[in-house]
């Protein structure tokens, strides 16, 4: 597998905000015509290094999105993508909502979109990627605020909740808010299919009348059944932990997860599982817990800030269990990134880079089924005038 990178001379152009390692751009470039990323921004020096190592032809502004000006953005981009930070709207984190400082970065991005609009250079498509928690944080006020900003700027807005597990052996549900102006992607009259989830339908029902009047249920077909599982992304010859280390980790299993492991060991079969160490609070006391799954999926890759959560691979064979860390390359494969992608040499940086990223095939599906048809790309990759 190779992720094709469109050149900056591709017929369609995109800007990537909160770009991280540039995985949104990899997905955007793999459509029929492909978007060339002409401008990107990220505040994190490690991410910026990774971006430059993989997208030499793209202008990258390293720094706070709030410090950018429209003058730095070349031309009229067809699409602007913003994977705005999600800590504060994450279901897993504190619910500070979009008013909190980090998620407030969305508004730094939005200010730029308004600046481009004043100069007659607004993109026809804007995409916001976030965690599904955006649907309910602030009792729906954050989702309303994002959608209302787009509607006020003349866009038609809709959203899709997409789990990367339909494409890749990783469970990674994410929300994609998609706004289009002057162009229109395929829609359905009423919510249907796996991407208009009950959670999204409930959030839509809470939106203001003016947003709902400009709402679109974007039409997207799920991919054929996935034939990859966790074992297909594993690197060969990765050293496993000592028996004592494995025993210490397995001692953190809850009785339910221990029973799950015992059943697999009793079968004697070779099975590869994913294990995740996290802190759980029980009766006000914090406990380290190891959680296991043997459904062929890796759990959602995360970026631990406190260093206590870790992702492991658990290999059971002939009644014995061995364990090791998930590698940065395996994490990249779980995001649909080809092996020619240059990862940071530090394993923890590579895991952080991938843990924050967007799954490439999900962006590719959006590109092929929604963005390119809206922008007049024909089946042979030509762009209709
Ligand atoms: C969820 S990650 C997006 C990763 C990206 N989609 C990818 O595929 O690698 C959010 C990114 O926003 C960046 N970020 C956070 N606050 C920012 C700010 N104020 N200005 C610019 N970038 C920011 C972080 O460094 C991080 O890389």
Describe the secondary structure blueprint for this structure:
Layout (H helix, E strand, L loop, with lengths): L11 E6 L5 H6 L6 E8 L2 H10 L4 E4 L16 E4 L22 H14 L6 E6 L10 H12 L3 E8 L9 E8 L6 E2 L9 H9 L2 H5 L3 E2 L24 H8 L4 H13 L3 E12 L2 E9 L16 E8 L2 E6 L2 H7 L12 H9 L4 H15 L11
Parallel strand pairs: 1-2, 1-4, 2-3, 4-5
Antiparallel strand pairs: 5-7, 6-7, 8-9, 10-11, 10-12, 12-13
Helix pairs in contact: 9-10
The structure holds S-adenosylmethionine (SAM).
Total count of helical runs of at least 4 residues: 11
CATH fold call of the largest domain: Rossmann fold
Largest β sheet strand count, sense and barrel closure = 7 strands, mixed
Net shape: globular
Total individual domains: 2
Structural class: alpha/beta
Strand order of the largest sheet: 3-2-1-4-5-7-6
CATH superfamily of the largest domain: Vaccinia Virus protein VP39
Mean pLDDT: 90
Give the CATH class of the largest domain.
Alpha Beta
User: Can you write the helix and strand succession as a string?
Assistant: EHEHEEHEHEEEHHEHHEEEEHHH
CATH architecture of the largest domain: 3-Layer(aba) Sandwich
Low-pLDDT sequence parts = 89-95
Instruction: Please give the share of residues in helix.
Output: 25-40%
* Bound ligand species: S-adenosylmethionine
Tell me which oligomeric state these chains represent.
single chain
Question: How much beta, percentage-wise?
Answer: 15-25%
- Rg, rounded, reads 21 Å
Number of strands: 13
Pfam family, one: DNA_methylase
Family: Belongs to the class I-like SAM-binding methyltransferase superfamily. C5-methyltransferase family.
Keywords: Methyltransferase, Restriction system, S-adenosyl-L-methionine, Transferase
GO biological process, one term: methylation
